[in-house]
Amino acid sequence: MYQNEKDKLATELAPEEITHSCTKKKTIKFTDYAISKYVPSFIGEDKKTRDRDIVSFDRSSGIKGLKLVCYRSSKRRVVMMRYWHDNKSKPYTFGEITVTFGIKQIRDQYNELVKDHQNNKGHWIKDPKQTQELNAKRITKAIVEDALELTVNEIVEKYLKANLPRYSRPGTLTTITQKTFTRFLIGYNKRHSHLKFEDDKRGYGRIDFVANIHLRTVAPTSWEDLFNKFPSGTGIDKSQKERSVYDSDIGKSLIKDLTTPMIKNYIEKNSQSVGQKTNLQKCLSALYNFALSNDYLTNRKTDINPTKFTIKKIDAPLDVEGNPIYENKNSKYNNSSFTRDELVMINDKAIEGRKLYPFQPEACLMIMATALREETVKKMRRQDVDYEKGIIKIPGGINKSRETTEVIITPPVLEVLNMIDEQLEKPEFRLYKNVPWLFPTTRIDKKKIFIRSYTESDATRLKTLRGVWTYITSETGIVGAIRMFRKTYARMSKIELGQTGKAKLLTGHQQDSTFDVFYDKGTIDEKKEYANQVSNIYNFIKHKKTG
What is the pTM of this model? Predict the structure, then answer.
């Protein structure tokens, strides 16, 4: 306040007490030392935490509007300036302060901008921000041009870092496919033993890194770390005849130079069975499509996809008795199914094996009673069971068709569910109620049983039915595979219901070639009617309650 009207025109400085009440603007010197020693305050005047702290440099910088921006979460320190152009205040970022980027680089960058963007009066006649964006586009274009000369191995690294994405659909490949493809791409090598595969709730595969106790190596921190520890050609498993793409000569070729003869030759050298050759071709096709979708093949002289060719199947040779000798021991089961008498024997031995292989017999019987695939059953959760509606909801993420479907809780299915509940009531398995899986593994670490991230992981679910199936086949003398349950169910359903469409509704087959041309979507009530009718065939699935 002025003491009188004359004081309004006075030229003297303000009184001392008013000078002391003015807030002095915080600045720091424009030196690398000052920047490194500056301690940002992320607490505002309102006493609330802020995400960043902004402080101006003093006049020693010679650059108007120059500021240091410190970020709380990332700890980054970025130098930027605010300038006026076209009557607007705009930001320009010089870059992040690092060991190799400091005030010298900022001054050089600023001086270059002044030459082309300011007039003699120091006004910005060209927009530095616009120039920066144009330069970024040029850099991106240069990176793409360099990428056109990438080798197959470099594409393999990028493909793995991207977590093996699908080509035509969103998401990543499933765990089973990821295991197969990574074996072809970087396997037959010690590096593959450091990978852990899991599916998320959507059915997307995820790859993590683990330590290897036998090799006495710690878990890699990244894909770069893995390839630094095991570069191309090192750590190869010499007991294997195959060589992965990453350890072969084809990996050193440019991706744009691949030809069909090159790929065929590699497949013939590194595959023995027709099935393995087919899977390897699918793997290389997925890798090539990844390169195609990420513009790594723009410089290729032809649009022909070198991975598109047919792997011819050969007739199985005959033994001395004239029976086919299958290259895969399970191939002979492709068109086979069980008889009802065999199913009864399998059921009886499965129930006997419940003490030896807890939860495996129940999973085996669930496959028998529902025609679900083994991988689907092993990923079922207790929350999927709806007793009130009488269905088990199968999420699309664990279903081969990727479509959500329902399984009717028929008397045989209910019997299996009761067996599971009975197992969970046993003292040694009561803690397993904390596990969400319908079929938990017995290899659970009980010290971690209350850690949610552990119990919901793949580490706590059943992974194999090999133990109980070996027991059943050895005790009964029955020759077959678990996947034959699905074919058996389909055949018996068709006979019982008299129509392919009704049977197909229960098994969930999608392809016409798999289950005739006729297809009927049906309602849930129809599905219940058909399922209960077919369940009469499986009325032998019963058990005596054990203690």
Answer: 0.58
Q: What span, in angstroms and rounded, lies between the C-alpha atoms of 238 and 303?
A: 37
Q: Is 439 in contact with 332 (CB distance < 8 Å)?
A: no
β-strands 66-71, 52-57 pairing:
antiparallel
Element of type H or E holding 141: helix 128-147
Q: The tokens 């004239």 sit on which residue?
A: 322
Rounded Cα distance, 37 and 227, in Å: 37
Q: How far apart are the first and last CA of the chain?
A: 93
Pairing of strands 66-71, 77-85: antiparallel
Q: Tell me which residue of 353, 392, 385, 347 sits closest to 538, measured CA to CA.
A: 347
Confidence of residue 509 (pLDDT cuts 50, 70, 90): low
Cα distance between residue 160 and residue 162, in whole Å: 5
What does the pLDDT average to over 126-150?
69
- If phi over 0 gives left and psi between -120 and 50 gives alpha, with beta otherwise, what is residue 188? left
Pair 410, 420: CB distance under 8 Å: no
Q: How far apart are CA 189 and CA 168, in angstroms?
A: 30
Helix, strand, or coil (residue 503):
helix
CB-CB neighbours of 403 under 10 Å:
11
Question: How many angstroms separate the CA atoms of 463 and 418, rounded?
Answer: 21
Q: Lowest-pLDDT range, 435-444, 454-463, 477-486, 536-545?
A: 536-545
User: How many whole angstroms separate alpha carbon 117 and alpha carbon 119?
Assistant: 7
What is the SS3 assignment for 461?
strand
How many angstroms separate the CA atoms of 412 and 485, rounded? 14
Question: b/e string for 221-240 if b means 16 or more Cβ within 10 A?
Answer: eebeebbebbebeebbeeee
The whole-angstrom separation of Cα 75 and Cα 92 is 20
Is residue 79 pLDDT above 70, yes or no?
yes
User: Which residue's structure tokens are 């691949």?
Assistant: 258
| Strand residue runs (E) in 143-229 | 195-199, 205-209
Helix (H) or strand (E) run with residue 79 in it: strand 77-85
pLDDT at 1 over 60: no
180-210 pLDDT, tens per residue? 999 999 998 899 999 999 888 777 888 999 9
pLDDT tier for residue 7 given thresholds of 50, 70 and 90 = very low
Instruction: List domains and CATH numbers for the chain.
Output: 10-145 (3.30.160.390), 152-293 (no CATH), 334-538 (1.10.443.10)
DSSP symbols for 27-95: EE-SSHHHHHH-----B-TTS-B-SEEEEEE-GGG--TTEEEEEETTT--EEEEEEEEETTEEEEEEEE
- For every residue of 230-256, DSSP letters joined together read S-TTSSB-TT-S---GGGSGGGGSBGG
Report residue 202: phi and psi, to 5°: -90, -5
Which candidate, 420, 182, 430, places its Cα nearest to that of 286?
182
From CA 121, how far away is CA 126, in angstroms rounded? 13
Q: Are 371 and 489 in contact (CB under 8 A)?
A: yes
String of DSSP letters for 147-160:
HTT-BHHHHHHHHH
